[in-house]
Amino acid sequence: MPTLAVDGPGEDGPSAFHADPVRELFLQTATEATTEQAVARLTRQSVTAFTQPPRQIAWQRTPSTYVVCTEDLAIPPEVQRRRIKAGTRSVDFRAGHHPFLSRPGAFAELIATETRLAR
C-alpha cells in the first residue's frame, strides 16, 4: 500500500496529511472542484483514531455491508476484500477512497438499497 506523507505534531494539532498525496490517493475520482474543497478542509488530527482500540464493534452484532471501492488507490480493492469478515456482505462500488465525495448520489442510493436489504 502507498505511504502518505504526514507532518508530526504542530501548534494546530498532532498530525497532518500533505495535500498532494491526498489528491492523488484519496480524491482521484472526485471532480476538481470537490477535490479542492476537500483539500481546503484538511486539518490536523489526533493519531488516536488510528491507534486506540474501539470500545464497541457494531458489525459483530449488526448485519453489515462492506463497500469495496474498486478504484481506491489508498487501500487497494484486494486489501479491502481481505478485511471483510465472515458473514459480512460485500458490494463492489466504482469509486476511489471517498465515494461520498466523488459519487454522492450513487453512494447514497447504494446505502439506501443495502439498508433495505438488511431489514
The unreliable regions are none
Q: Helicity range of the residues? A: 25-40%
Structural class: alpha+beta
Shape: globular
Number of strands: 4
How confident is the prediction overall: mean pLDDT? 86
Main β-sheet, spatial strand arrangement? 1-2
Largest sheet, strands/sense/barrel:
2 strands, antiparallel
Strand content: 5-15%
The arrangement of helices and strands along the chain is EEHHHEHEHH
Summed up, the helix count is: 6
Task: Tell me the radius of gyration.
Answer: 16 Å
Distance between the termini: 35 Å
Search tags:
alpha+beta, single chain, globular, 6 helices
Summarize the structure.
The protein has 119 residues and is α+β, with helices and mostly antiparallel strands. 39% of the residues lie in helices and 12% in strands. The protein is globular.
Description:
The protein is an alpha+beta fold and 119 residues long. The protein has helices spanning 19-25, 32-40, 48-51, 77-83, 99-102, 104-118; strands at 6-7, 16-17, 65-69, 89-93. The protein has a two-stranded antiparallel ribbon with strand order 1-2. β1 (6-7) and β2 (16-17) form a beta hairpin.
